[in-house]
Amino acid sequence: MSVESSPRLAEIVEAARELLESEGPGGLTMRALGDRLGMRAPSLYKHVADKDELEALLIAEAFRRWGAVMHEALAGLPGRAPRKAKLASLARAYRAWAQAHPHLYRLVTGGPLPRERLPDGLEAWAAQPITRAAGSEARARAAWAFAHGMTILELDGRFPPGADLDTAWDAGISALG
Amino acid sequence: MSVESSPRLAEIVEAARELLESEGPGGLTMRALGDRLGMRAPSLYKHVADKDELEALLIAEAFRRWGAVMHEALAGLPGRAPRKAKLASLARAYRAWAQAHPHLYRLVTGGPLPRERLPDGLEAWAAQPITRAAGSEARARAAWAFAHGMTILELDGRFPPGADLDTAWDAGISALG
DNA sequence: GTCTATAGTGGGATAGAC
DNA sequence: GTCTATCCCACTATAGAC
Question: From the CA of A29, how many Å to the C1' of C16?
Answer without folding.
Answer: 24
